[in-house]
Amino acid sequence: MPNFTRGIHYLKKLHAANVPPDLIENGQKRVIDASLTLIRERAKLKAELLRALGGVTASASLLGVPLGHNSSFLQGPAFAPPRIREAIWCGSTNSSSEEGKELNDPRVLTDVGDVPIQELRDCGVDDDKLMNIVSESVKLVMEQDPLRPLVLGGDHSISFPVVRAVSEKLGGPVDVLHLDAHPDIYDAFEGNIYSHASSFARIMEGGYARRLLQVGIRSITKEGREQGKRFGVEQYEMRTFSRDRPMLENLSLGEGVKGVYVSVDVDCLDPAFAPGVSHIEPGGLSFRDVLNILHNLRGDVVAADVVEFNPQRDTVDGMTAMVAAKLVRELAAKISK
Ligand SMILES: [Mn+2]
Q: Which residues of this UniProt protein bind Mn(2+) (predicted)?
């Protein structure tokens, strides 16, 4: 495992050696500005292209957030975005979505690159700032009509700054469809308020979601259930999935709010379908269960994420990368119009 905190420790040593704090802070600010500038300019170029092409009101735009250090177990999701991109364009399959959208048409899917998370951390940027940079990056994409963010994680901690940005940018809450083995709604996990196990507590506290539907749940503690009740979360557990299935495959969301946000943790799937995740949790959804829920969902999907794919746990032939990529492809088809 690489040591993600190496750069930060180095900078702390410099602080101790009486390097003026201003020097580091001003330097960080320049790096942050430059990082945001690259995302802003890429998004602007892609959107200008789409507006020139015409005939498109919404296009999915990939934004990678390679962040893994807010995981409570393994940090491998930090390496996921390039593996997912590679699999999206893998020559073993074609570029059509199941319902016939062409993914190589920029009116369906574009890419604005990654937020340089590890490079920013290497400059000593802390998590408060990092989460704001993720939110800012999402807003830069949304500013460029008709782009809509389709975020590649990263661990699940990134959904908090992403949903916050979507809600703030649209000026109100969204309905969130959250597919996961876990509710990720601890008040804090091991003292970390930004933990990947706490992102939905932050989202609900912030008032960024009107409804939160959690589907695929099969690893939930007493606190997870209590927090669910406290925030009025609709938790659909796998043990009752056969009963809930007709309703979940016929959802209509986002009416009366700013739209629908879809967050897919790859571990919502049974490990038989997706072994490359940090938290192997048997008894999950099949890939077709997930696609049925997504394909049949009625609502304006304003943004989405696919998180928690861990390439360091994948099979040698990258099976889970293909699974994560297909989730991204089908979500892009769902978002675009
Ligand atoms: Mn999970």
A: 156, 180, 182, 184, 265, 267
In the chain the first and final C-alpha atoms are separated, in Å, by: 41
- Indicate if the pLDDT at residue 1 is higher than 80: no
Instruction: Count CB atoms within 10 A of the CB of residue 64.
Output: 22
Give CA–CA dist 136/76, Å, rounded: 24
Confidence (pLDDT) at 40 = 98
The alpha carbon of 182 and the centre of ligand 1 are apart by a number of angstroms equal to 5
CA distances 222 to 103, 200, 244, Å, are 42, 16, 22
Determine the 3-state secondary structure of 309 from DSSP.
Answer: strand
Q: What is the 3-state secondary structure (H, E, C) of 113-128?
A: EECCHHHHHHCCCCHH
What residues are neighbours of ligand 1 (ion), with CB under 5 Å? Answer: 180-182, 265, 267
Residue 2 forms part of a structural domain: no
Q: Is 111 annotated as a binding residue?
A: no
Chain Cα centroid distance, residue 268: 14
287-296 and 319-335 helices cross at what angle (nearest 10)? 10
Instruction: Report the percent of the chain where pLDDT is more than 90.
Output: 92
Domain count across the chain = 1
Q: Report the separation in Å between the CA atom of 180 and the middle of ligand 1, taken as the mean of its atom positions.
A: 5
22 has binding-site annotation: no
DSSP string, 43-88: HHHHHHHHHHH---S-EEEEEEE---TT-SS--GGGGHHHHHHHHH
From the CA of 277, how far away is ligand 1's center (Å)? Answer: 9
Is 177 inside a domain boundary? yes
Q: Is residue 3 part of a domain?
A: no
Q: What is the pLDDT of residues 203-233, one digit of tens each?
A: 999 999 999 999 999 999 999 999 999 999 9
- Say if 103 falls within a structural domain: yes
Entry pTM: 0.95
Q: Which of 58, 307, 59, 30 lies closest to 160 in space, CA to CA?
A: 307
Residue 134 is part of a domain; what is its CATH number? 3.40.800.10
